[in-house]
Amino acid sequence: MTATLINGNALSKIIRADVAARAAALAQQGCRPGLAVLLVGDDPASAVYVRNKIKACEEHGLHSSCDRYPADLSEAELLARIDALNRDPAIHGILVQLPLPAHINSHKVIEAIAAAKDVDGFHIANAGALLTGRPSFRPCTPYGVMMMLQAAKIPLSGASAVVIGRSNIVGKPMALLLLEAGATVTICHSKTRDLASYTRAADIVVAAAGQRNVLRADMVKPGATVIDVGMNRDETGKLCGDVDFESVKEVAGHITPVPGGVGPMTITMLLVNTLTAAEQAYAQRLPSHIA
Ligand SMILES: Nc1nc2c(c(=O)[nH]1)N[C@@H](CN(C=O)c1ccc(C(=O)N[C@@H](CCC(=O)O)C(=O)O)cc1)CN2
Ligand SMILES: [Mg+2]
User: Where is each Tetrahydrofolate dehydrogenase/cyclohydrolase NAD(P)-binding domain found (predicted)?
Assistant: First the structure.
């Protein structure tokens, strides 16, 4: 292996220690940060992620609540619950686990969350703030990737970056964050012709396509930084990313593993966003500062 591993578990530990200290300081002033998580349906992977989010809150001094609903919950019932949480002073962050069942309009649900409590950073107000370079809650996965690049001291200003994937929760915000940091950014996706011609020229490749082996060794510039956001299963059921790790690690300069790379950072940045929401509410003495 020639590439240096960027370890999301190790970096998470450092950031989470800071979260715990900030949460304790805020709690001492009478404001315990609170996160509400809403899970609809019985997708096993979503259940694991939600459980890990609640556990992370418990371990770092954040209050949390979790509502689990059957897959046939109506959109109106979900919206009513969000409305109640928007007005709940003990709750600073609200998160609806995605994906939602097909009969629920996820855009409508996300827009129903108060932007000040949208710790996923998916609300159109937060997405628009990111687009226009104003402070906002940054979506947790791309925010986590930025922290990993910073921790590994990867130069971003003037770098050529390729993001593979154009989803609202990873690809698009990832591209905007890299652009904000001064990179020259190309977004590639399932309709891109000759993907390798883009990735071979890139200093940084972020793979978020949801497809195994989308990036192979012959598609990577020697020494490039490769970030794997993918979460797939191989033919034996083992968790793997979008990157052919075994071959790419021999060419790249830095690489993230799956598991133990970007995944844990997603939950870490959720804690950071929730704490920030609580600190902002407390600073503005909104009714929601009362724990
Ligand atoms: N409301 C949201 N829904 C979804 C988000 C999100 O940020 N907000 N992101 C993904 C899923 N996700 C968090 O919700 C998530 C995915 C993966 C991990 C993680 O820690 N992965 C581990 C492996 C876990 C395993 O063994 O299965 C790793 O990579 O090491 C955390 C969070 C979609 N939905
Ligand atoms: Mg895509």
Answer: 139-280
